């Protein structure tokens, strides 16, 4: 199997899938009786549906220091074995020939899928290979055109997967830091099942589910709301607001450490505007939020009273018309607030002074519809709201977004953020990223801040690094020979 283009890659049909996932579930019997989009098709009283089950899974193989691989023709590198799941009896591995398999392919890298262990006479599978570039994007994909027959010890693949000169050319970005990352997707034919039945049902046209859109409309229209959320912009984030109180006038300047500012227009859409910021400012804003995240009760009450007094004259707040039942169903924090005899429950009004109005709107939109359209641009602040109001899925989505945005400059900030909000998955990814890019991260300004202010996190980084290292080879010197002792000690001179 081969077919390389000028850039060393080939494309057939596409394959997609996740680990151990069936390609398609069991179809409804109605789908075998008629096509819902065409009411003119006949209805069958007796029917049979044959389902070919396909198990799809994927595997990534990373080869560090690829340019140091031996370059003799026919040399082989093999990955470790992998399978679709814990109970799967089929064991697979990937095999590459860095300088081709034979004379014909000596200018190419050859890549194959090998069946190492099989509990059947044979299996049939399709596969797709691709290379991940520096942005972790799939490139130069090649895919089998059909399901091939595999037996134990048999491999299928591409003798001319990609040209070596194209792969080694740094301008193509396929070997970031001399690291080759191969992504493989496999689709294995499991078995075939027949579903039969009888029916005399008439044809129905079923409208699509509009639950999310309906609840989104309910959030945008305050007609049936029974509660209001008054969100006051925190003091440190008010921009150019003149505050009058006690006969004195003070101007609250915008924080210089904020890397993004959010503006809300009349139609309610949230927009973000980038402002120049350095890695140090990122760390500074994060530390400021850390230090003010847990105020004492007396300070909180004082700040609440001040905000209530200033809210009318300042106008730096926003009111959301919401529904107690929805908020209580989605958040345990709101449920406790409305169930107990608290001021918020009796007044049907909740005053919030530690969350930005734009962040609160994004969180409420998620609570009503299950989606957050501005998640990627607001994840660093949205994760705090998700943690406070016990929205676990939103919190994990923020972790995922922050993980995808990891860089050498913000890795230390992200680790501190993960520690602050107990984001364990983000913490592990940030630690692994720091260890993989140790030289670049240690050269950043935020590294010194991490060492100085968060020694426990630094200890975690080094602990993870130590556990990933291979124990060094200790060369032992041969044991010294014992001196032979006389039967009696020698007499002194």
How is the topology of this model organized?
Blueprint lengths: L20 E2 L6 H5 L12 E19 L12 E2 L12 E7 L10 E10 L5 E10 L5 E6 L4 E3 L4 E9 H5 L10 E20 L12 H10 L6 E6 L8 E5 L2 E5 L7 E5 L5 E5 L4 H13 L5 H18 L2 E6 L1 H7 L1 H8 L3 H5 L1 E4 L4 H13 L5 H14 L3 H13 L6 H10 L3 H13 L1 H5 L2 H9 L1 H14 L25
Parallel strand pairs: 11-17
Antiparallel strand pairs: 1-2, 2-10, 3-4, 4-5, 5-9, 6-7, 6-8, 6-10, 11-16, 12-13, 14-15
Helix pairs in contact: 3-9, 4-12, 6-7, 9-10, 10-11, 11-13, 12-13, 12-15, 13-16
How would you describe the overall organization of this protein?
- Residues 273-297 have a biased composition (Polar residues).
- Residues 307-370 form the BTB domain.
- Pathway: Protein modification; protein ubiquitination.
- It is found in: Nucleus.
- This protein is α+β, with helices and mostly antiparallel strands.
- The protein is 33% helix and 25% strand.
- Strands 1, 2, 6, 7, 8 and 10 form a 6-stranded antiparallel β-sheet that branches. A 4-stranded antiparallel β-sheet has the order 3-4-5-9. The chain has a 3-stranded mixed β-sheet with strand order 16-11-17, sandwiched between helices.
- A hairpin with a 5-residue loop joins strand 14 and strand 15.
- Helix 3 runs antiparallel to helix 9, helix 10 (375-388) runs antiparallel to helix 11 (392-404) and helix 12 runs antiparallel to helix 13 (424-436).
- Residues 2-6, 8-36, 239-281, 287-300, 304-314 and 472-476 have low confidence and may be disordered.
Quick structural overview:
One of its GO terms (biological process) is protein catabolic process. This protein has 493 residues and is α+β, with helices and mostly antiparallel strands.
């Amino acid at each position: 199997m081969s077919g390389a283009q000028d850039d060393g890659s080939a494309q057939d049909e596409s394959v997609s899938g996740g680990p151990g996932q069936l390609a398609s579930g069991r179809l409804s019997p109605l789908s075998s009786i008629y096509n819902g989009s065409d009411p003119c098709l006949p209805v069958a009283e007796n029917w049979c549906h044959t389902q070919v089950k396909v198990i799809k899974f994927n595997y990534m193989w990373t080869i560090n220091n690829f340019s140091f691989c031996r370059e003799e023709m026919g040399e082989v590198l093999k990955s470790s074995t992998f399978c679709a799941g814990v109970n799967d009896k089929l064991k697979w591995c990937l095999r590459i020939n860095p300088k081709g398999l034979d004379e014909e392919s000596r200018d190419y890298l050859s890549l194959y899928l090998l069946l190492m262990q099989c509990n059947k006479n044979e299996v049939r599978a399709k596969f797709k290979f691709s290379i991940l570039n520096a942005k972790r994007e799939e490139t130069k994909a090649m895919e089998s055109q059909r399901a091939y027959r595999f037996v134990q010890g048999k491999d299928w693949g591409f003798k001319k997967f990609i040209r070596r000169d194209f792969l080694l050319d740094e301008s193509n970005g396929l070997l970031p830091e001399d690291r080759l990352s191969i992504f493989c997707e496999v689709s294995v034919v499991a078995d075939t099942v027949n579903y039969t039945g009888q029916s005399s049902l008439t044809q129905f046209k079923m409208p699509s589910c509009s639950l999310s859109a309906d609840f989104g409309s309910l959030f945008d229209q305050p007609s049936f709301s029974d509660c209001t959320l008054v969100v006051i912009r925190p003091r440190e984030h008010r921009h150019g607001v003149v505050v009058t109180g006690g006969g004195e006038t003070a101007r609250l300047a915008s924080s210089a450490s904020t890397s993004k500012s959010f503006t809300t227009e009349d139609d309610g859409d949230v927009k973000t505007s980038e402002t120049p910021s350095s890695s140090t400012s990122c760390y500074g804003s994060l530390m400021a939020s850390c230090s003010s995240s847990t105020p004492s009760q007396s300070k909180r009450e004082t700040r609440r009273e001040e905000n209530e007094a200033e809210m009318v004259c300042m106008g730096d707040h926003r009111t959301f018309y919401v529904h107690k039942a929805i908020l209580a169903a989605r958040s345990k924090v709101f449920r406790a607030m409305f169930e107990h005899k608290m001021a918020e429950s009796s007044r049907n009004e909740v005053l919030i002074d530690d969350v930005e109005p734009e962040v609160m709107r994004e969180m409420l939109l998620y609570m009503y519809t299950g989606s957050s359209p501005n998640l990627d641009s607001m994840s660093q602040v949205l994760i705090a709201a998700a943690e406070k109001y016990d929205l676990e899925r939103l919190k994990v989505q923020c972790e995922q977004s922050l993980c995808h945005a990891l860089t050498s400059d913000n890795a230390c900030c992200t680790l501190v953020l993960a520690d602050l909000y107990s984001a364990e998955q983000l913490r592990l990814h940030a630690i692994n990223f720091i260890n993989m890019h140790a030289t670049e991260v240690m050269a950043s300004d935020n590294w010194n801040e991490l060492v100085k202010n968060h020694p426990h996190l630094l200890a975690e980084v080094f602990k993870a690094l130590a556990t990933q290292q291979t124990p060094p080879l200790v060369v032992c010197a041969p044991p010294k020979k014992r001196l032979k002792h006389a039967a009696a000690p020698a007499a002194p001179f």
